[in-house]
Each structure stands twice: as structure tokens, then as C-alpha cells.
Amino acid sequence: MTKLRKATATLTPLAPSPAPAVAGLPRWVLITGALVAALASAGAAVAQTDVSGSNTVSVDQVQHNLSIDQDRIGDAQRAQGDLSAALKSYQASMGIRRKLAERDPGNAQWQRGLSVSHDRIGDVQRAQGDLGAALKSFQAGMEIARKLAERDPGNAQWQRDLSVSHNKIGDVQSAQGDLGGALKSFQADMEIARKLAERDPGNAEWQRGLSVSHERIGEVQSAQGDLGGALKSFQAGMEIARKLAERDPGNAEWQRDLSVSHNLIGNVQSAQGDLGEALKSYQASMGIRRKLAERDPGNAQWQRDLSISHDRIGNMQSAQGDLSAALKSYQASMGIRRKLAERDPGNAEWQRDLVVSHVKIGDVQSAQGDLGGALKSFQASMEIARKLAERDPGNAQWQTDLAFSCWKLSQLDTPALPKAERRALLKRGLAVLERLQQRGQLTPDKQTWPEAFRQALQKLAR
């Protein structure tokens, strides 16, 4: 038991004071190094411990601690953009938790831990673009969460876990083009979130959960064309997010939530044609995001958020006719996204961000008369979109991106792109859209796209 106690002790100080030689290293490096050392020490101790009946509970707790530390390593790796490494860490954690849950099925703590592992793995799979695998992971997590919530309806944490599961499943359904299924999932999430928030109005976690629920429903309403309903949902979410951010200005997560609310409201204002108000919303969002990115330059999420703000502001500048300013905004966004994509080429979300940036830059170049530059930008976008679409044929968003890239290239009237190639691009894009339409995955705002492709084909045939 001496070795076991020593092993357990190493798990407590996650980031000891760095020696002078490593004092300049980022905090995540120190944390990861400390955790790796703890895991190695504790793992060796457990392996060498004589597990008798009287020691079983202690060993189980050490195993549980090991799973938590694997999660923390995975969180650090994910924050740095290394999804493959994060997935391995989360799978290692799940391996431990599955054994604990099988050993004692009645232990709610072990069961909840297994549910959390499914969710973390699903998060990475979704970020990698594997929506089918992500959905299975989230559904496995929900099955456990539902059983725990039914076992004790008065347990707020278990109710919250079930709410989160609905949310994650809804996100995947939305990405797959199943807006009806997504809306049902988000409404189930909202029902739980509202009850929790009403039960304890001073609980910041419950309030934040309710804010997120409003936003998820608003996103589906927006995709369905209900801009008025979406704006109301986003404003309800922002009201909560603002109160939380004012309560604790140093809480980075709450500040980010507020920036997201500004962004979502700006999206609706833009769609409604209120460009001035949309620009104000996007600038408010960027002000928060720039501070977060400067506070932690190594945080990939903060950097990506900042790139999105540059994009949104560029959209407004372009719509207002200021093409030079828009190009600068899009290039600033591209600079951030290229670094992120190079950091982790397997991160599908970041690859898709590059698709968007290339298209936006190409649009401005085309409007400025730089058809050669636009051609290069649209071709770069097409190449990435093609790879993503081939990686997951069931991902409606990526298939739509491919069709859109085909459209952008086909509309360039330049000798460098003969009519035969432009027609081939339109036919390819139309085939993609028709498949999506047949499967019911073409969102309401894109239902007119197939006909637009057909009309463009007729014009080129003349």
C-alpha cells in the first residue's frame, strides 16, 4: 500500500511550480508533463500492488483518478488542436471507466464517468468530421445519462447531463441536415434546462445551460427561415449571457458566450438586411474575442473565434461596397485559419474554415476584376471541399460546400476556364444537390439551388 499511497499523492499537484529552466514554457505544456509523470507513477504502482479484497475500493479510486487525468491530458491536447492525440487520451480514459462500470454496475459515479467518456470521444469525432461515429458516441452517452436521470429525478447534475446529451445529439443532427430531429433534441434540452434554472436561479451553470438552449433553438429556426423566431431566441440567450459576463468579467468562458450571442444576433440582422446593426453586433463580438485571444495565444478556440469575427466584419464591409477593407478582413481571418489548419491537418472543422476563407477572398477578387486571383482562390477552395466531401459522403454540410465551390468556379467567365469545364462543374454540383434533396438533407434556404444550377447550365449551352 506504500506504493499506492505515493501514486495517489502524485495525482494531486497537477502543475507544480516550474523550475527556472522551464519557467518560460506555456502552462499547458507544464500541466501535460505533470500529468504524464503522474500517470506513469500511478500506473506502475497499481500494477505492482497486491490487490486484496480490503484494498479493492482504494485501487478503484486510483483507477478513477487515472481516468480523470487522461481526460485532462486530452483536454490540453484538444485545446492545442491535436485531435488525434486527444482521441487516444479519451479512449484510454474510457477503457478504465468501462472496466469500473462493468465491475460495479450499481455505482452511479462509475456509470456517469463512462457517459462523460462517450461524450468527449464524440466531441473529437465530430470535430474530425465523422458525424456518424459522433452520433453513436453521443447516443451511447445519452443512454447512460437517461438511466441515471430516471433513477433519481431530483438529482440536478444527472438531469443536466441528460440535457447536455440532447444538445450534442441535436448538433450532429443539425450538421447532417436533419433540422426536424435537431429541433426536437434542442427542445428536449430546453425543457430540462428551464426546470433546472427555475429550481435554482442563482446557479450560474444552470443559467448558462438555458442560454445555450435558446441559442441552439435559434440556430435551427434561422436555418428553417424563421428569422423573427431566431432573433427572439438569440436575444433571450444573450440576456442570460450578459448577466453572467457582468457577474464575473474574468471568466473567459462566460465572456466567450457573450461574444457568441453578439455574433448570432448579427447573423440574423444581416439576413434581415440591417447591415449597420449587424456590423455593430460583430464589432462587439470581436472586441471580446480579441481580448481572449491576446490573453491566451495558444488557445485554438479563441484564435478560431477571432477569425470568425474578421469574417463577419468582412461580410458587412463587402455588402457596404468597401471591398479593400473586406479583403483585409478576410485575409486576417485566413492568416489565423491557415496556422490552425497547419497545426492539425486532421481537424476537419479547421479545414472547412479554409474553404470559407478562400471563397470569400475569391469573391472580393472577382468583384475587383482580378479574375486570375479569384480563379486560384476558388480552385483552392474546391480542392479542400472535395477532400472533405469524399471523407464523409453523409455530411450534408460538406456536400453542400462542394456544390457551392463548383458554382463559384463555374461563374468565372475567363479564358482560363473554358465553357466545357464550367458546364462540367455545374453538372457535378447539381448531382450533389439532387442527392441531398432526395435524402431530405437540403436545408430550406438552399431548396432553390438545384434550379439555379439548371438555369446556369442552359445559359452555357447557348
Automatic annotation (TrEMBL):
SUPFAM superfamilies noted in UniProt: TPR-like (SSF48452)
InterPro entries: TPR-like_helical_dom_sf (IPR011990), TPR_rpt (IPR019734)
Protein name: Tetratricopeptide (TPR) repeat protein
Lineage: Bacteria, Pseudomonadati, Pseudomonadota, Betaproteobacteria, Burkholderiales
